[in-house]
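Re: that backbone. Tokens:
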């Protein structure tokens, strides 16, 4: 899954690709590079990011979804917590709603996800984006994330979302201490995969990579760690990795898979 942010303030690619032609050119590039899904986001979830109003988020996301759909049948995901944005994006051609709040942001989210008939990604987050990194706490991060995701999947199914449309995501970096929580979670992905849903992993260029690599590495200098995390995800059986660097990640996954196949 390749990330296409149409935001001025995302932690890595904010403002990098612009909105109109620039964002479309980036989407085209990710398709050529081997993405199977494009994840389009119009609001940053990084701690301290400015909230975006619904109309503005729709204006950022929908024209791009429509433009991609007009020229490609690639799977399109919309990264939003707002039901109105998800609805508009699905009407424009998206087939997946990626919600970092696991359909908890609005009371109508669960029912809408069932109505839209799209895939849904339910992600774990402790707290709210604005404050989630202040003081995250867990007794057993893997078990708590697994229990939360099982509970949200049950809520989605009770609301009418068929089991086969549900994906789960452990939410690396969302209300997790850089190393004390993110690393055990990445080491315990099999437990999340064992819940029986496809798992999406988003570790690309996140700050835990810098913490492991001596600190002070900006997002631009975290590609190697991002690929290491993607390979750890693949080894644990995740179904997709959400990444900024599609070409490099596809190459790493292909080589890793080829070596695994050669081992027999
Ligand atoms: N991470 C980000 C955003 N959306 N969605 C899922 N399902 N999983 C993730 O790990 C995830 C996500 C953060 O990355 P990015 O979109 O690059 O940054 P920002 O939120 O600043 O736009």
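Recovered sequence:
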């Amino acid at each position: 899954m390749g990330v296409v942010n149409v935001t001025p303030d995302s932690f890595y690619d904010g403002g990098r690709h612009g909105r109109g032609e620039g964002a479309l050119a980036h989407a085209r590039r990710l398709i050529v590079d081997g993405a199977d899904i494009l994840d389009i986001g119009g609001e940053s979830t990084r701690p301290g990011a400015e909230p975006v109003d619904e109309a503005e988020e729709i204006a950022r996301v929908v024209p791009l979804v429509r433009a991609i759909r007009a020229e490609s049948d690639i799977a399109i995901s919309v990264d939003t917590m707002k039901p109105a944005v998800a609805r508009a994006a699905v009407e424009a051609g998206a087939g997946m709603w990626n919600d970092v709040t696991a359909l908890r942001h609005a009371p109508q989210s669960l029912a809408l996800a069932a109505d839209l008939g799209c895939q849904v990604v339910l992600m774990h987050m402790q707290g709210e984006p604005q404050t989630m990194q202040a003081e995250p706490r867990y007794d057993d991060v893997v078990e708590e994330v697994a229990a939360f995701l099982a509970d949200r999947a049950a809520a989605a199914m009770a609301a009418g979302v068929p089991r086969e449309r549900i994906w789960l995501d452990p939410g690396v970096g969302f209300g997790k201490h850089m190393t004390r929580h993110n690393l055990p979670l990445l080491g315990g992905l099999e437990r999340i995969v064992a819940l029986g849903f496809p798992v999406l992993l988003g570790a690309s260029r996140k700050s835990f990579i810098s913490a492991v690599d001596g600190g002070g590495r900006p997002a631009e200098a975290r590609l190697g760690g991002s690929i290491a995390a993607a390979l750890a995800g693949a080894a644990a059986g995740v179904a997709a990795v959400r990444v900024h660097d599609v070409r490099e990640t596809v190459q790493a996954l292909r080589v890793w898979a080829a070596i695994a196949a050669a081992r027999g």
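The first strand starts at residue 2 and ends at 5. Strands lie at 2-5, 37-41, 75-79, 96-99, 119-123, 166-169, 200-201, 240-241.
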